[in-house]
Amino acid sequence: MRGGGPPERTPDGRYVVIGGRRWRATDPDVPEEAAAELRSHLMAARRAVGAARRAEDPVAERAARARVHTAKVALGERGEPWWEQSAAARRTRWQEGLAALGEPDPPPPTQR
What we know:
- There is one protein chain.
- The chain is mainly alpha-helical and 112 residues long.
- The protein has 3 helices and 3 strands; from the N terminus they run E-E-E-H-H-H.
- It has a 3-stranded antiparallel beta sheet with strand order 1-2-3, with no helix packed on it.
- Helix 2 (58-75) packs antiparallel against helix 3 (87-101).
- The protein starts with 7 loop residues before the first strand and ends in an 11-residue tail after the last helix.
- The model has no long low-confidence stretch (mean pLDDT 91).
């Protein structure tokens, strides 16, 4: 990914290539509003992983990592490949992910 543009995709569109590595692409059928909300949850959960690690809190870290996983599955980046699912199964996947994640996470407390 150079110049802030979108990452390179494989010809079939199923993967993005970043730093020479293939990563599963987000399901293109997830509506942009839902995808943006899921990305918000994902980034908040990733920040929570970092905060839990800094606090040396393994319980909080496991919970945050579970939220990361839920968001990535909902986006189609983990779990059953989105290109192998029916349109209804794909819709159910991201809708259930949003429901499981609920409202966006509050920002982590500031460190002093």
